[in-house]
Amino acid sequence: MTxxxxxxxxxxxxxxxxxxxxxxxxxxxxxxxxxxxxxVGSGPxxxxxxxxxxxxxxxVSAIDPSPPFVASLLERLPEVDVRAGAAExxxxxxxxxxxxxxxxxxxxMSDPVGGLREMGRVTRPGGVVAACVWDHDGGDTPLSLCWTxxxxxxxxAVDESGLAGARQGHLEQLCAEAGLTDVQATKLHVDxxxxxxxxxxxxxxxxxxxxxxxxxxxxxxGRTALRTGCAERLPAAPFTVRASAWAARAxx
Length: 252
Known about the structure:
By secondary structure, this protein is of the alpha/beta class. It contains 9 helices and 7 strands; from the N terminus they run H-E-H-E-H-E-E-H-E-H-H-E-H-H-H-E.
């Protein structure tokens, strides 16, 4: 699995969903002018951009372990404090931010509880710690159709339904284990339209994330069968894909 890919490739793969999700997620987290905010696992900046719109670049910090994403974000938002690093070892002092957010990141943390605990550490007492993860367990994500077809063709394929936070109630449990308080949860939804099947399919071949890695491991016949199976399941273009994410908001 890799996220060490060009920022524009990720934008085509997941950015079309993560950008509108960022608006709903920032609303849920209560991000408003005057706040100092950290975006943990920022990627190429879908949520970061939304945070800048709300509080101004000088009040936003962002961190991600992928060098291409960090470089892209530094170029695009030079006034934001962008750093390379992991959620489990945040390079910030205690009690720095009014809100610390992690969009579509907790399920990829090597230590989700440790990462959320670190988010709480760098957030001022009473400040907001928030996270969201696609509902992989409920089969309601941008990737669900492709994973469903993949598992029908290859029952040994391991999808993302077992990842941290990807099932109802698990994000809240992780937040509580991390010592966060006043945990509240909701489900966020986004709808994205595609003009053609190829527009939908091509980003899956970029090798991004667990599904991209799985597709990259297939031989020509396996990939063709997966592509054909997905094409048979999707409606005629243009079509809309709905995706849902579990979100949790807590207090440091």
